[in-house]
Amino acid sequence: MQALTLLLWMGALLGHGSSQNSAGDVEEGSLAPDATTAGMSAEEEDPFFKVPVNKLAAAVSNFGYDLYRVRSSMSPAANVLLSPLSVATALSALSLGAEQRTESTIHRALYYDLISNPDIHSTYKELLAAVTAPQKNLRSASRIVFERKLRIKSSFVAPLDKSYGTRPRILTGNPRIDLQEINNWVQAQMKGKVPRSTRDMPSDISILLLGVAHFKGQWVTKFDSRKTSLADFHLDEERTVRVPMMSDPKAILRYGLDSDLNCKIAQLPLTGSVSIIFFLPQRATQNLTLIEESLTSEFIHDIDRELKTVQAVLTIPKLKLSYDGALTEALREMKLQSLFESPDFSKITGKPIKLTHAEHRAGFEWNEDGAGAAPSPGLQPARLTFPLDYHLNQPFIFVLRDTDTGALLFIGKILDPRGT
Asked: What sequence ranges are listed for the domain Serpin (predicted)?
């Protein structure tokens, strides 16, 4: 895990290197990282990670950050939108049918080998219940689809249903009927919020993993739609596009500057104990890879603890993105190659089967909608000796996180907010 080297505009955390004037206003400082916490694992010292469901959330979220990095590296010039939890859920569910060697492969990818939990799957049921509670505004579902005429053992189906609330689907062999059935399932799970897929069903399916998710956020403090207007979004230093930008001249947010990553970090709260963290590079042409490589559950947890509440001039693009595509090659790159070659799923069936396809469908949006017209009374921003602006008007990364468990719900790389 990378040690947090988060520097605030007001000085380092805990007052290292900062200066205060006689009125108590905090002034900007130039600071070095606090070496005392470098290299220390958050999980060794933070009671948050002692809770089994939080520990599990950290593990599957770290899988999610790995998946995001691989997916982003495959599409360096395109937007990336993922809800890794739905994919992790499908993999975790599949591990119920794996013998020890194959189970260990899946568990290592999901970071379960770092968890001393005798009942991962019942804890996963608790995690799913927590993050899909109605107030979270997240819909997430996963499914395992098997080749036609496969005889599946009831000893696999029962725990699958018990812990993950899903049942396997066996293909009919008719591509049109199978695509229609899967589309109908997605529509039922997502309440019609995720578009139907128009892509053809693969012809060589042995095992297909399907993860679907949708999120439409509600800000704790809504934006005034009268202040939304077309403004420039800088694709790079030479190209700009005009997009609808929401604005709030007196936004209350949590803020910090990471000098190692050369980016400004801001966190905005959403209803249901969910928050979104933005990573905004200092320059529009800055490579996002360094930020991406730093993302772990522990790093994000540290950020969540150490950002400071401030008032700022905020602009943020309205966003409505979707993804419908394969993650097969991404999983092959993630220590899971053996699942596609000669795995042992004899707890599922007596016939040799293997993972052949992984599909992901996701929808994500935010607009001006929110719970209230004013910030929560308990939020007291620090006094600034200089104006603070936070304009998401160039490429950025966002992380949608469940505050209660620490689970990564969605992650995106937005190079162009007009769409994927």
From this structure: 65-417
